[in-house]
From TrEMBL:
GO terms for molecular function: acetylcholine-gated monoatomic cation-selective channel activity; transmembrane signaling receptor activity. Residues 1-19 form the signal peptide. Keywords: Cell membrane, Ion channel, Ion transport, Ligand-gated ion channel, Membrane, Receptor, Signal, Synapse, Transmembrane, Transport. It is a multi-pass membrane protein. This is Acetylcholine receptor subunit beta-like 1. It is found in: Synaptic cell membrane. InterPro entries: Neur_chan_lig-bd, Neur_chan_lig-bd_sf, Neur_channel, Nicotinic_acetylcholine_rcpt. One of its GO terms (cellular component) is postsynaptic membrane. Its main location: membrane. It comes from Folsomia candida (Springtail). Residues 41-241 form the Neurotransmitter-gated ion-channel ligand-binding domain. The keyword Signal applies.
């Protein structure tokens, strides 16, 4: 049990470390040690004296990225099961501070204490994503980074025949459930994989990722003048020969 907890902790730390690649997070904050507990507590008290997480962060643009860890397919129900890290980065102007007054590089805060974007898996089997409530990381300029590990179930038109090298193409489609594009922007997360699905930590003995793409889509509906954004990740999988195993595909 201790080994499992240790492995999960290390995985989450790795996810946050890899996520801190966006240019809006200055390098000095990624490596800097925090000040003492008393200073952090005083800063926390100041930031959250009147803060209400139910009030959304105005003029926010949310950046969304995905790291794929594992995949399996339910052919009977046309469902793709994935274990992923979802990276979300946004700015909350209510969570800024002067480093001269509070020499704190980052704050690690329970996710339920801050406003979070209502990013939803549009083609998910369930209305809510199954995610572990990790802490968010808040930086002095108000940037908030959240990287929850999630188990996702998405509908996919599967054609499994259990033949060697057969292929499946499935998608993950994310967007805000309630905010239009004028109220909350949506962009692809800027990671070292050029905004594609990150497969560096992917491991699966049966399926290899042979291609993946990511695009931001903008849609208009007859009812409204506002645009609605979504991020569409497309993954192409190829079945490996029996007994094959590949950790990652570049």
């Amino acid at each position: 049990m201790k080994f499992i907890l240790c492995a999960v902790t290390l995985a989450i730390l790795a996810a946050y470390s890899k996520a801190e690649l966006d240019p809006e997070i200055p390098k000095k904050w990624k490596t800097r040690e925090d000040a003492g507990v008393a200073v952090r507590d005083k800063l926390f008290e100041k930031l959250f004296a009147t803060y209400k997480p139910e009030n959304y962060a105005e003029n926010s643009t949310v950046k969304v990225g995905v790291s794929l860890l594992d995949v399996s397919f339910d052919a009977d129900n046309d469902i793709m099961n994935t274990n992923v890290w979802i990276r979300m980065l946004w700015k909350d102007n209510r969570l800024t501070w002067d480093e001269a007054e509070f020499p704190v590089g980052v704050l690690r805060i329970p996710a339920d204490k801050v406003w979070k974007p209502d990013i939803t898996l549009y083609n998910g089997v369930k209305p809510n994503m199954e995610c572990f409530e990790t802490n968010v990381i808040v930086y002095p300029n108000g940037m908030v980074l959240w990287v929850p590990p999630c188990h996702l179930q998405t509908y996919c038109n599967l054609t499994l025949n259990h033949g060697a090298y057969e292929e499946q193409i499935c998608t993950l489609k994310f967007g805000s459930w309630t905010f239009d594009g004028f109220t909350m922007g949506l962009e692809l997360y800027n990671n070292k994989n050029n905004t594609l699905v990150d497969v560096e930590d992917y491991f699966n003995r049966k399926w290899e990722v042979t291609q993946n793409t990511a695009v931001r889509e903008e849609k208009f509906y007859d009812c409204c003048v506002e645009p609605y954004f979504n991020i569409l990740f497309t993954l192409r999988f190829q079945r490996k020969p029996e007994g094959g195993a590949t950790c990652k595909k570049h």
